[in-house]
Design goal:
single chain
Length: 139
């Protein structure tokens, strides 16, 4: 398999194309969902651009204030599919953002103790989930 077919991996340790660009791709998809919704509501409902964007945002986040409602059958059907697809795409994007953030924080906090320092936490309790504390040790 060539490097292009393998997502650009060389040797297995480098991140794939998706791992390098997932946040950008999903962010662009989320922005595209809002753009498509804005354009469709502007055309189908004859709302202003601001009102169309506002309704698109309110609908896809499932807030649903109720101050604007689709009036035609076409826009009602579009709204059903728009909410399901938009909610999915935006949820996946937010989930990916949170995973990247958690990974970044975990890497920042991960450190190895310097020579001569104990690997036990400050309270002296072992980190082994099977151990119950000082009673498990002899002495």
């Amino acid at each position: 398999m060539s490097d292009v077919e393998n997502g650009g991996e060389q040797g297995g340790s480098s991140p794939t194309f998706w791992e390098r660009h997932d946040n950008r791709i999903l962010g662009a998809s989320a922005l595209s969902v809002l753009t498509v919704g804005t354009v469709v509501y502007h055309l189908l409902e004859d709302w202003s651009w601001v009102d169309s964007f506002y309704f698109s945002s309110v609908a896809v986040t499932t807030v649903g204030f109720g101050d604007f409602t689709p009036s035609t059958d076409a826009s009602k059907l579009f709204t059903v599919f728009y909410i399901f697809s938009g909610l999915t795409i935006i949820s996946v994007w937010l989930n990916t953002r949170l995973k990247h953030r958690a990974t970044k924080v975990a890497k920042k906090r991960d450190f190895t103790p310097a020579a001569g320092f104990s690997a036990l936490p400050p309270n002296g309790m072992p980190t082994d989930p099977g151990a119950t504390g000082p009673a498990d040790t002899e002495g």
